Amino acid sequence: MALAAGSTTRLWTLVAKEFWRKTRRRLRAGPVYRWRYSGRTPERVLIAPPDLRLADPQIALEIYYGRYPLSGHLVETGGKSPFQIEVANRGWVKTLHGFRWLRHMRAAGTELAAANARALVSDWIAMHSNQISGIAWEPGTTAKRVIAWLQHSSVVLQGAEFPFYRAFLKSLAVQIRYLRSMAREMPDGKDRLRARIALAFAALSLPAPASALRGATRNLAEELDRQILPDGGHISRNPMAVLELLADLLPLRQTYANQAETPPAALMGAIDRMLPALRFFRHQDGSLARFNGMGATIHDRIATILRHDDTAGAPLLHAPHSGYERLSMGGVTVIADTGASPPIDVSNAAHAGCLAFELSSGRQHYVVNAGIDTYGAAEFRPLARATAAHSTATINDTSSARFSHSLRVNDLLGTPLLGGPQHVPCKRIDQKGAQGFIARHDGYVQRFGFQHERELKLSSEGNVLAGRDRFLRPGGAAIRNNGRDFVVVRFHIHPDINLLQDEHDRLVLTADEADTWVFTCTEVAPEVEESIYFAGLGGPRRSRQIVLAFKASEIAEVHWQLTRTGIAGYPENN
Questions:
Q1: Count of alpha carbons within 13 Å of 409, Cβ hemisphere only?
Q2: What is the DSSP letter of 288?
Q3: Which residues of 396-417 are buried (b: 16+ CB within 10 A; e: fewer)?
Q4: Is the CB of residue 255 less than 8 Å from the CB of residue 262?
Q5: Can you tell me the distance from the alpha carbon of 82 to that of 93, in angstroms, rounded to the nearest whole number?
Q6: Which is nearest to 505 in space by CA: 527, 488, 523?
Q7: Using an 8 Å Cβ cutoff, are 456 and 436 in contact?
Q8: CA atoms within a 13 Å half-sphere pointing along the CA-CB vector of 149
Q9: Maximum Cα–Cα distance for the chain, whole Å?
Q10: Where does the Heparinase II/III-like C-terminal domain start and stop, copy by copy (predicted)?
Q11: What is d(CA 146, CA 128) in angstroms, rounded to the nearest whole number?
Q12: At residue 376, what are phi and psi to the nearest 5 degrees?
């Protein structure tokens, strides 16, 4: 089916903007424009901002021996500089030029590590500082590099001779001026916000006139107000974006304090909203719910960030601006996507998972979404983003949102999400001893003429999750039996869970030293099918899914239930 006219217009408007943006970037990288990046070289680095990202001295040793484990991909350079070799993996190349791996050298704390860091920075300056092109000078990568060079300037400059010291500061100044010229025209999303963060770091960490700090602070505040939602989520609706941005915003707040400068209210407010939002997406084992671009969780990263959260009490249950709901009681956590599709220009990582949910009990996950393989092959991303990879309903084997498959578009924009749910009304139905919500989405109305409505209610001290999936036409008319009303409601099961059938033909979900749950459905006999879990720490894993398959013209509403029959350490209650 053709895209709606509105989606088509927005897509090609975005293509035109991106084409113009890349054209201007090429012009600004040319010799006619490059003079604007020259200017006074700072005399010194005033302060090295802190870095909250985890560091491993062993990785510094690997890098010393020419092994670069970056972005989930290991490259051995065979004695050459990593900046001299051609590597096909784009993620690895971007991470190399982002220089965040300098933190491992700082963690090593040795003269050898400092000398190696200095040698690698020197290589980059010699090969890329005067050639403003390619991945190395993409504004998002440049922003990461500016932040990393400032944060780890102490180790890079340790024992440096004056010529290198000056070359480092000169290159840094050129990158900052380039980033300043590009920031306003960058595509919407976290890279543009990170560019503003990098420029604020630079204004605080290097000698600069007061006007430069005021301008950087003002631009940062405007971008924060625009990108960070009132409930602390990010406009992309990706939980990972909240985590990544906090890893930069918290050190920036500390740098303002260290320099006795007043941080903008927008920065303080954004952090105060984002920390509870991060907790909102967190299951009890510390991992983040797998929605809209979230893959495997590195638990220590989240713990490091949340040490800065002074918020007392339980996480919030309602994130209306981000479009998520949370149910939590009795050691059970349910997190659900109840939001419309994000704006098209920040939807490259968005999923077609409206009304999907995840269920964890204690520290074990039971019902999940497939998530993404963060460092895996790009060809698997469309599978992970499809509605069928989520614990929700699909109609006629079709996703509730569409993705661009045009090579011309993808070369410029990636794979934006098109024509997804636009109206997702949601109502909390909390009662004494129970938490719940009812939500519906219109992602299938244009193609198939009916909506999906889901009600979830957690009760009995967390022992019962009752669900209702209803399919209805706008106006209340009956759904037609026209061969376009086939529904599949999926419940993806975490690969660590054993899925068995008991003597009563019920499906039992259990794991070693974990709670036991039983799945039942009133109207449809559940079936078990193969599935895949993309978000494993070690890569994709085989898993299974519970499936309810039926025709909406014959069964317009199904009721299902997950009942906790045994709590770890206690006998089952039959």
A1: 17
A2: B
A3: eebbbbbbbeeeebeebbbbbb
A4: no
A5: 9
A6: 527
A7: yes
A8: 32
A9: 80
A10: 313-561
A11: 14
A12: -85, -175
Q: Which two tokens stand for residue 266?
A: 């927008």
Tokens encoding 392: 């929700």
The alpha carbon dihedral of 58, 62, 63, 69 has a sign of negative
- Give the Cα-Cα-Cα angle 155, 157, 158 (nearest 5 degrees): 65
What is the pLDDT tens value at each position of the chain, 574 positions in all? 344 555 666 666 666 666 666 666 666 665 555 556 666 888 899 999 999 999 999 999 999 999 999 998 999 999 899 999 999 999 999 999 999 999 999 999 999 999 999 999 999 999 998 888 889 999 999 999 999 999 999 999 998 999 999 999 999 999 999 999 989 888 889 999 999 999 999 999 999 899 999 999 999 999 999 999 999 999 999 999 999 999 999 999 999 999 999 999 999 999 999 999 999 999 999 999 999 999 988 888 888 898 888 776 667 899 999 999 999 999 999 999 999 999 888 998 899 999 999 999 999 999 999 999 988 877 788 899 999 999 999 999 999 998 876 656 555 566 888 888 999 999 999 999 999 999 999 999 999 999 999 999 999 999 999 999 999 998 888 899 999 999 999 999 999 999 999 888 899 999 999 999 999 999 999 999 999 999 988 889 999 999 999 999 999 999 999 999 988 755 555 4
For residue 282, give the 3-state DSSP assignment. Answer: strand
Closest of 204, 166, 197, 156 to residue 179, by C-alpha: 197
Q: Which two tokens stand for residue 300?
A: 């220590």
Is the pTM higher than 0.90? The answer reads yes
The angle at the Cα of 241, spanning 236 to 245, to the nearest 5 degrees, equals 125
> What is the identity of the amino acid at 73?
H
Q: Residue 96 corresponds to which tokens in the numbers above?
A: 């190399």
What is the residue type of 26? R
* CB-based contact 212:230 (threshold 8 Å): no
